[in-house]
Structure formats: structure tokens, C-alpha cells
């Protein structure tokens, strides 16, 4: 512990695309002779805006440590105690893992995505599920005899 799950290949593709976007659009802005300084600047700012969106898309991760799990999605971050997580789900056709929570809600956890690396995502989902089961079994607040998800 701590263990971090993130879509590595997807992240690499997105960050590479962000860098390529900035480089290509900046070079185009510099090579187009008919553009004025303000127009060149707007090209470059647009490139950085697009790259920023790609970097946000590369942000998701799930970090598990001794006290719980932190789920970082595109624009949000949520800290969960182990006891709050009832089940880890990755069903066929799901775009990412869903965490069923003790309050009856479900939290999407984009840090595990089967998109480009399906086998890796399945292994990560199983590892997170095993951690949840192990931690829930160790939790003194969980009544004995109650199913552990």
C-alpha cells in the first residue's frame, strides 16, 4: 500500500496527443505568414486549451491505501473509507468500474477502464475487489455474519 490504478495506455495516448496538438498548432501558427501576432497567439492559446482538455481526460486514477480509497475522475475527487465500498463492478460493456457504496449509490471510478487494455482493466478490477473484501473483513464496524459484497 498505497496502490494506484490508472488506465496507463489511455493516459499515454492522451498525453502524447496533448503534446502533439500543442506542437503542431504552434508550428502551423508560426509558418502561416498571413497571420498577425494576435491571430498567432489565438492559435497557440487554442492549442493549449485543447491540450488542457486532453490532460483532464488523462487525470483519472484510483488510489488505495490503509485508510481507504481515493477516486479521482475527470473533474472530481472523492475519498472513501473501506467500509463505504460494498462492491466493485466491471460488467461486460461497462466503460469503467463502478463502486457500489453503503449509502445505496454507485460511484463511477474512471481509473480502471477496459477501453484499450481490457485484460489489464479486468485484473485491476479484481485486485481492487480483493482489497475491498480483505479490508471489509478486517473492519470492526462490519457486523459479523453480514455478507461482504
Structure explained in plain terms:
With 149 residues, this protein is α+β, with helices and mostly antiparallel strands. It is 44% helix and 21% strand. It has helices at residues 8-31, 37-57, 118-138; strands at residues 3-5, 61-65, 68-72, 77-81, 85-89, 97-101, 106-109. Helix 1 (8-31) runs antiparallel to helix 2 (37-57). The radius of gyration is 20 Å and the shape is elongated. The model is unreliable at 142-149 (pLDDT under 50).
Write the layout of secondary structure elements.
Layout: E1 3-5, H1 8-31, H2 37-57, E2 61-65, E3 68-72, E4 77-81, E5 85-89, E6 97-101, E7 106-109, H3 118-138
Antiparallel strand pairs: 1-2, 2-3, 3-4, 5-6, 6-7
Helix pairs in contact: 1-2
